Amino acid sequence: MEKIEEGHFPPKKAESELASVQVETDNPAKKLARQLDFTGGVPGQALTVSLQEHANQIIQPEVIKSSQLTVSMKSTQVISPQPQLQQHILLMPMQQAPVLPPQPLIRPLSMQSSSEAKDGTPKKPKQCNCKHSRCLKLYCECFASGIFCDGCNCANCHNNVENEASREEAVEATLERNPNAFRPKIASSPHGTREEREEAGDGLVLPKHNKGCHCKKSGCLKKYCECFQANILCSENCRCMDCKNFEGNEERQAHFHGYHANNMAYLQQTANVAITDAIGSSGYGSPPVNKNRKPQELFSGSMIKDPVHRLGQFQQENQIKASVPPSLLSSIPSTRVSNAAALGPPKPTYRSLLADIIQNHDIKELCSVLIVYAQEAAKILSDEKDASLKQAKHHRKASYPSSGVGKVVPDDCSTGIQAESIRGDESRLDGADVSAERPISPGTLALMCDEQDTTFTAAAAPPNDLTSLSNNTSSQPPHGQGRAEIYPELERIVLAQTRDCLKKLITLGEIKEKKCSLMVRDTDSGRQNNVSSNGVVNTVPPPPPPQQKVDSGTTAANTTRPKVHPPDGK
DNA sequence: GAGTTTGAAACT
DNA sequence: CAGTTTCAAACTC
């Protein structure tokens, strides 16, 4: 048992160096400093890293190692006047660190949340209560976390600088048994395709327990279970019995339901994600498949009865939190309740409120509209160019018969500048190389023309559909009118249509948000069977009825917008 | 706060 | 590798 103190392990090479670290504390019994020893297998080369206000953070060895280049290996830290904030994290000597892929460092939840007060302010990290292990075995959370005991309630603690020698022996012994003993137990799964991960969650990498749990009686729904404690689903690595810690399990849902029913902030906290997910997340419509279902549960009566009823989203929310260093979570208020439902507000994943509104075909259709307009514009401008060239030629023959190269002389914005833009845009629209001599962008040009020619915004009746526009185009517009008006008009139409689409999206998103808010309130009254993946109650009619769904070509609110006809002539 | 339960770690 | 023991956290009362 206590071989480690019988000299069974290689003698330490640099105890004197470590002794310099020991000087740091004037409180031998309970060190104020926590240290991570980045010896990387070289005993004695202790690297102390000060982490202001990052008290409970474990630093990934691979990452820290790079900092060894800039930090003195023997640097002696001055104890901070605020020892609770000045944390020295001591990394355990690693054996063959680079074998494993980079892993998110996730500490057991008990360690995570314990560093935070309920109001989110950092407080003293977890204090162990070891009595028989001298805090030199993995039983001790401090030791397992690679930190010195500091203010713990342990007895006969050797996990401090005063007992660095025995501690280091214990570390080596532990590493001898398990080289990954001090590595995070939870790692993002490097396996599986992105689709698979998306299937299981929201496109996030799913953390899972490296070794897996072996629970028998807790159903993996108590903090006895390391997976549950880390807020992750049990995985194929687990060998647990009667596991209920899989996505979709009702008992598990019950744990999470209590918290999320009262938490609307998570919607707002992740609202930004909605922007980027708004389109892509539409692919998440299909329920994620639980990959953690154990064979014995697949046929058990406790299996999911309602496949729609799932809180897998919440699970992934928790996983996100688990993936974030605790120090980064300190700003998130955390409540600590013995129930798993309040394992602390997890940073949620957010499924866009627009996820079901914007469809891929909508985007394609919108693109088609733009393409159509672009083609029409190209056609118009091409025709205009031809006409102007012919006219210029004719004019040149009349005025400068001996002139060499013909050139359109701009006379004003609506003609000359546009002529320049014609050259530029022509090649651009055709997909050819863009003219480098184009001085003004089409947008700028359009704005300039807008400024100078306000007639089309008020007086001129804009073409209400592309057909009329095309007709206008096919029949050469009268010179002096078309070139100055059609191009900005085209652009105006496109921009207006895009604006209308965005407005509609905003409106629909707001509608859905309101319904989502109602759902959150409703879930308090026990209606769980109709919660969809993004938290929208299905009993409420979907916010975007088919006729309301954002369609680049149809928006009821926009009657002036020209109808959109896809390029295929439909 | 004491006692019990639980599962990881340690050990055989 | 499997079974047993030890241990400390989680949980219950």
TrEMBL record:
It comes from the Eukaryota. GO terms for biological process: regulation of DNA-templated transcription. Keywords: Nucleus. Residues 101-129, 182-201, 392-411, 460-482, 522-570 are annotated as: Disordered. SMART domains: CXC. Residues 124-248 form the CRC domain. InterPro entries: CRC, Lin-54_fam, Tesmin/TSO1-like_CXC. One of its GO terms (cellular component) is nucleus. Residues 549-561 have a biased composition (Polar residues). It is found in: Nucleus. Its main location: nucleus. Pfam families: TCR. Belongs to the lin-54 family. This is CRC domain-containing protein. The gene is LOC101249098.
